[in-house]
Amino acid sequence: MSSAFPEIYLVRHGETEWSRSGRHTGRSDIPLTEVGEAAARKLAERLSGHSFSAVWSSPSARARKTCALAGFGSGAVIRDDLAEWDYGAYEGITTKEILAGRPGWQLFRDGCPNGETPADVGARADAVVHALRQVGATILIFSSSHFLRVLAARWLGLPPEGGAHFVLDTASISVLGYEHDLTEPVIRQWNQR
User: Fold this and answer.
1) How many domains are there within the chain?
2) Which residues are annotated as a binding site for substrate?
3) What are residue 177's DSSP bridge partners?
4) Which end of the chain, N or C, is less surrounded by CB atoms within 10 Å?
């Protein structure tokens, strides 16, 4: 599925112990598991044949390692605005554990105490969208699930809370782009494993 317009390839990092167990992993640097490393290596084949004007990565070790194992580490630009959601007091805790103490809590609506709100993450995503549209070329991005979900929502013009409607598996590839012209942003592919 190629396009005459720039495309933005989004890659979620490979599996970590915390992603496997459902623990919120914002700013903690949890390494990839062996399964995560193997999946990251397979990304090289899955991304072969595509040409990227630039490669951007979150500063997290898991995103940078995924980028490197996929064969794109040497040219990657580390961007702080691609960091995962800052979960504050909920760092390292599962949703089930959070709900036990805070029934009805939803990340994309409520944010995290001592961490980021949806608006905070949306503002970072807006900066990335602005930069992508300024570059106007096909870019490859390595980051984490919740941030990439907000980025997709903001790409489409949805509020940051719209990210709740997109699910991303580890080592998945998604593609943002346009339909008829540069005024029609779309999701061209989502959560390809």
Assistant:
1) 1
2) 25-26, 62, 84-87
3) 186
4) N
